[in-house]
Design goal:
By secondary structure, the chain is mostly helical. Helix 3 crosses helix 5 and helix 5 crosses helix 8.
Length: about 200
């Protein structure tokens, strides 16, 4: 299947596989519940604002995300507003991870200061950032940031990331509900869903 015909199911399977490989501290049922909770939070409001992270934390996370999905000929994590998704996720539907994640971020930032006493990760050159990330890319912090970056890049824009659907445009995904239920016994009572508004081009 080429990118132009990527289905919703294929997209969800790819995200699920990425999350599974990251050994997150909860299972699929908890993830599904978090997504439901996140939809409620998204519908109730909250635009592109930072509510949980400090400015320094947000700047460093955005810089990390921008190395994971860089901006080149196509928009990357920065243009997709991934940091806003991460902030919202940690403040709401992934709040159980916020304490550990921010502690790991603090350790990450301390490591940067030990190597670059006068700078933050966000203030380093791209080459310096990549060099440092190579030393920490096997840590739980980086694994979680990578998963959150991917989710923020390709999730529904209502959740704070994937601004204007740029992540979907990048992979050729069109948010068109062309499949019809029932899919199996597990959704026989599923009441349906509403299409979230997104700038489609």
């Amino acid at each position: 299947m080429d990118n132009g015909t990527l289905s919703r199911r294929s997209l969800l399977q790819a995200i699920a596989a990425t999350m599974a490989s990251a050994a997150l501290p909860f299972g699929w049922a908890e993830i599904a519940q978090a997504v439901d909770d996140g939809h409620v939070e998204a519908v109730q409001g909250g635009g592109s604002t930072i509510s949980l992270l400090t400015a320094a934390e947000a700047a460093d996370i955005e810089a990390i995300a921008s190395q994971i999905i860089p901006s080149d000929d196509s928009p990357g994590a920065r243009e997709a507003g991934v940091v806003y998704f991460i902030d919202r996720a940690l403040a709401t539907f992934f709040s159980q991870l916020a304490g550990d994640y921010r502690a790991q971020l603090a350790a990450f930032q301390q490591g940067v200061r030990e190597r670059h006493p006068n700078g933050s990760f966000a203030s380093l050159t791209s080459d310096q950032q990549i060099e440092y990330l190579k030393d920490v890319d096997q840590t739980p912090f980086f694994a979680m940031t990578r998963v959150l970056t991917l989710l923020g890049m390709f999730t529904l824009p209502a959740y704070g990331g994937n601004r204007n659907g740029v992540g979907w445009h990048l992979i050729g995904f069109k948010d068109a509900h062309v499949f019809e239920p029932p899919f199996g016994y597990y959704d026989r009572d599923y009441p349906g869903f509403a299409i979230d508004p997104v700038n489609r081009k």
